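The methods section describes the discrete structure representation at length, but only in general terms. An entry of this sort, consisting of the sequence and the corresponding backbone structure tokens, reads as follows:
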Amino acid sequence: MIHSVAPVTNQRGWGNVMYIPAAPWCPRNEEYATSVREAFLTGSSPGDFPAEHYERTWTNRFQREDLNETGRRGLGLGLG
């Protein structure tokens, strides 16, 4: 996948990019999902992002119970 972000002039505040991958379930992606799951559950930055970990201290951050069935399944969290 090719990805780029256009230059921004006079930006104020945060800018963000969403990466929503679509990939087959295989051992490599299962390992990646495990690492992302652990980061999500603790509010940590995933291993392929800068280690900022700023969500660790956010109140009301997105939690496991906020995920829908597809999100829980994608992170290997099951339905419970």
Notes: Residues 27-42 form the longest helix (16 residues). DSSP finds two helices and no strands in the chain. Helices lie at 27-42, 69-74.
